[in-house]
TrEMBL record:
Region described as Disordered: 1-24
Pfam families, sorted: DUF1285_C (PF21028), DUF1285_N (PF06938)
Entry protein name: DUF1285 domain-containing protein
Domain DUF1285 intervals: 34-101, 102-196
InterPro entries: DUF1285, DUF1285_beta_roll_sf, DUF1285_C, DUF1285_N
Length: 206
């Protein structure tokens, strides 16, 4: 007897990319991200989807070449309290692998100047975010090469890594300010000073 059960493409993790896209594509997200924080479906397991450290999405080991498909999946991403990154719809939730963070900030626009400056970033999936109290910047130093690793919160705990050209532009805007009694090098945005490095440590990571 021929098995006509197509549940692998509809109700379980896995299936081909077209089937996966069809499942999640039925969710009307409108413009921008879906209201994933309002959805609490059952967990359906892991799927073979990965976002590598450069922000490249793949499924089953093959890069996803269609930008519209990547944006669809990005619009229904959520970060769980346990650190997992999941795709969420009203009826199912599946975990994916993220090597670093899911997004890359590929463009920065500067509005105003000085303490009133606003830094507006665009990600590789066209989220537009201003660095402010709700979307903080953070910086870490890679212990392997002492290089800066800059990140911006985009939404719901999901972050974007600043692409290297964007980081260079950001550093050009740097200023010094006192933080907890110490001099820091950083940038202003959204009414706050975002410390990057102690002034005394700048030469160590140059």
């Amino acid at each position: 007897m021929t098995n006509t059960d197509d549940s692998r493409g509809r109700g379980q993790p896995g299936g081909d990319l077209a089937g996966l896209s069809a499942r999640f594509g039925r969710i009307p997200t409108g413009r921008g991200p879906a209201p994933v924080d309002d959805w609490h479906p059952p967990f359906c397991g892991d799927i073979d989807m990965r976002i590598d450290a450069e922000g490249v999405w793949s499924y089953g080991g093959t890069p996803i070449g269609r930008e519209a498909m990547v944006k669809l999946f990005a619009s229904i991403l959520r970060r769980e309290p346990d650190g997992r990154t999941v795709l969420v719809t009203p009826v199912e939730m599946c975990a994916i692998r993220v090597d670093d963070v899911p997004f890359v900030a590929v463009e920065m626009k500067v509005e105003g100047g000085g303490v009133d400056q606003r830094l507006v970033f665009r990600t590789n999936v066209d989220d537009v975010v201003t660095a402010d109290a709700a979307h903080p910047l953070r910086f870490s130093v890679d212990p392997r090469n002492h290089g800066l690793k800059p990140y911006l919160t985009v939404r719901g705990g999901l972050e974007a890594r600043l692409a290297r050209p964007v980081l260079y532009d950001l550093v050009e805007l740097g200023d010094e300010a006192s933080v907890d009694g110490h001099r820091w090098f950083g940038v202003w945005s959204g009414g706050r000073f975002w410390p990057i490095l102690p002034v005394a440590d700048i030469e160590a990571v140059a």
